[in-house]
């Protein structure tokens, strides 16, 4: 029995609180081997890669837009309607493109029946009260305008998604998320000739009638994993390119819980950016990049024409699994890039420098965040589980940590559990110092701005962090089902 061997603590039942006290008969759960039947429904594949609809800044330096969150329907399977949630009828929502210094004014219209919503600007340095936190809900039928100015140095690949109490995971897997790109005020160190294409990855599970089934206890425990990954809303799309180019891609893991270990058919590419924008210099000769849920990367991929058809894949990654339905061990095809033109084209050089990344300064304050879980099987209630940080389940209004604005701190994030958990904090970008596993400490190989970092099972990650603005900020596991089950806390940044 996987659960027993995982050494999970049994605690009092929390099942009733999360509304699945009655789910006592889970196929395979008691017998440890059987896997629930997978759907056989086939999404439409092979269409051209959809380009995200861009919404940019006006001539006055202001980005003004409305985002209407509402039910919509999508044709994922030919001739069938999948009910989804969409922003302005689209999933992913529009891709906002602004510049450092711009003023952003975006109005959320919540047309989701019966549910609160918000827009959270994942990774962006926005004031706390504009950040769409669960304590600032927009009720169904209401609207609210978010307003903030993008500071100098904030260029990067951000995204937005709802963050209401109890409905974040559901609203995201039903389709509410979009990209937000901030470009530098001055010249971009990456040549414009390399293009700039966001690849926004989401995943989806469909029942035989093409609707999305509700999450099961196994989904909540492991995070909801889809049956197929979509790129910019399309299944296994195709992109056609001319040989002799480097292409800039912004890779977004917007899956609720799935890990992506992305490779470009073995082509050696350069990593040039992380969650919070460009690195100091390209890291060349990469063959894969691991993105935990909510992480982003910017890459430059050369296409010299020697490979005519490049399959972008997610390679196998074991992030730990409990109960039935573990993801398959095979690599997953994400999209195909076909390369036309010369079969031995020369490739323009990589930029040698990108930008400087500041040191965060000396720190004497250390905080510790320990992930935990309690899972109880069997009994009349079926099963119950909570996911914890420092032994606590999220409680709205409780301040779990405080810190001083402008004062750097070292945070140790400790994961003694049998599963990976991506740690995320709102309102700022941090730097990873090192990781430690089985007594081996590895320093971060280069400086990078991050807002989400994977903490592998049995690993400790140390980060250095500063909050530049006062207010209450959420920190949580970005497996959204774990956030739902309480793996979240509130930090108060003050003077
Ligand atoms: Cu991507 Cu608290 O969020
Ligand atoms: Cu966030
Ligand atoms: Cu988690």
UniProtKB/TrEMBL annotation:
Q: Name one Pfam family in it.
A: Cu-oxidase_3
**InterPro entries according to UniProt:** Cu-oxidase-like_N (IPR011707), Cu-oxidase_2nd (IPR001117), Cu-oxidase_C (IPR011706), Cu-oxidase_fam (IPR045087), Cu_oxidase_Cu_BS (IPR002355), Cupredoxin (IPR008972)
Q: Which GO terms describe its cellular component?
A: outer membrane-bounded periplasmic space
Question: Which positions carry the signal peptide feature in this UniProt record?
Answer: none
Task: Please give the SUPFAM superfamilies that the UniProt record associates with this protein.
Answer: Cupredoxins
* Annotated keywords: Metal-binding, Oxidoreductase
What Gene3D superfamilies is this protein classified in? Cupredoxins - blue copper proteins
Please state every residue range assigned to the domain named Plastocyanin-like. Answer: 74-185, 223-305, 384-491
The keyword Nucleotide-binding belongs to this UniProt entry's keyword annotation: no
The molecular function GO annotations come to: copper ion binding; oxidoreductase activity
**PANTHER family reported in the protein's UniProt record:** MULTI-COPPER OXIDASE (PTHR11709), MULTICOPPER OXIDASE LPR1 (PTHR11709:SF2)
Please identify the protein, giving its name as recorded: Copper oxidase
This protein's species is: Bosea vaviloviae
């Amino acid at each position: 029995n996987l659960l027993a061997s995982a050494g999970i603590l049994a605690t009092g039942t929390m099942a009733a609180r999360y509304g699945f006290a009655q789910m006592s008969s889970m196929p395979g759960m008691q017998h440890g081997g059987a896997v629930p039947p997978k759907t056989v429904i086939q999404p439409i594949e092979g269409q051209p890669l959809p380009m995200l609809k861009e919404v940019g800044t006006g001539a006055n330096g202001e980005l003004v837009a409305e985002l209407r969150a509402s039910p919509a329907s999508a044709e994922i399977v030919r001739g069938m309607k999948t009910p989804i949630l969409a922003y302005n009828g689209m999933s992913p929502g529009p891709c906002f493109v602004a510049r450092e210094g711009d003023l952003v004014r975006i109005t959320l219209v919540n047309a989701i029946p019966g549910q609160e919503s918000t827009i959270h600007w994942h990774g962006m340095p926005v004031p706390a009260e504009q950040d769409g936190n669960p304590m600032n809900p927009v009720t169904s039928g209401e609207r609210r305008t978010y307003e903030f100015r993008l500071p100098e140095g904030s260029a990067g690949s951000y995204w937005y998604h709802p963050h209401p109490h109890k409905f974040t995971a559901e609203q995201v897997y039903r389709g509410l998320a979009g990209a937000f790109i901030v470009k530098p005020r001055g010249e971009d160190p990456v040549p414009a000739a390399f293009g700039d294409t966001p690849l926004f990855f989401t995943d989806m599970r469909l029942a035989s009638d093409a609707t999305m089934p509700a999450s099961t206890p196994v989904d909540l425990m492991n995070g909801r994993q889809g049956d197929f990954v979509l790129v910019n809303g399309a299944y296994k799309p195709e992109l056609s390119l001319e040989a002799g180019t480097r292409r800039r891609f912004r890779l977004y893991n917007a899956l609720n819980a799935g890990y992506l270990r992305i490779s470009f058919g073995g082509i050696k590419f350069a990593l040039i950016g992380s969650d919070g924008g460009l690195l100091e210099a390209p890291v060349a000769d990469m063959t894969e990049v691991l993105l935990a849920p909510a992480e982003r990367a910017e890459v430059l991929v050369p296409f010299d024409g020697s490979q005519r058809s490049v399959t972008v894949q997610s390679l196998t990654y074991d992030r730990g699994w409990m109960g039935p339905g573990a993801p398959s061990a095979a690599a997953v095809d994400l999209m195909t890039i076909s390369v036309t033109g010369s079969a031995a084209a020369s490739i323009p050089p990589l930029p040698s420098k990108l930008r400087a990344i500041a040191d965060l300064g000396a720190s004497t304050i250390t905080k510790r965040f320990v992930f935990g879980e309690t899972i109880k099987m069997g009994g009349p209630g079926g099963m119950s589980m909570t996911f914890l940080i420092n032994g606590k389940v999220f409680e709205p209004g409780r301040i779990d940590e405080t810190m001083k604005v402008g004062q750097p701190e070292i945070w140790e994030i400790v994961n003694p559990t049998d599963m990976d958990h991506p740690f995320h904090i709102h309102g700022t970008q941090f730097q990873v110092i090192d990781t430690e596993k089985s007594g081996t400490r590895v320093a971060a190989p280069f400086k990078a701005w991050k807002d989400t970092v994977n903490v592998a099972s049995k690993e400790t990650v140390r980060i250095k962090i500063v909050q530049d603005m006062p207010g209450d900020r959420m920190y949580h596991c970005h497996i959204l089902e774990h956030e739902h089950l309480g793996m979240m806390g509130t930090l108060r940044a003050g003077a």
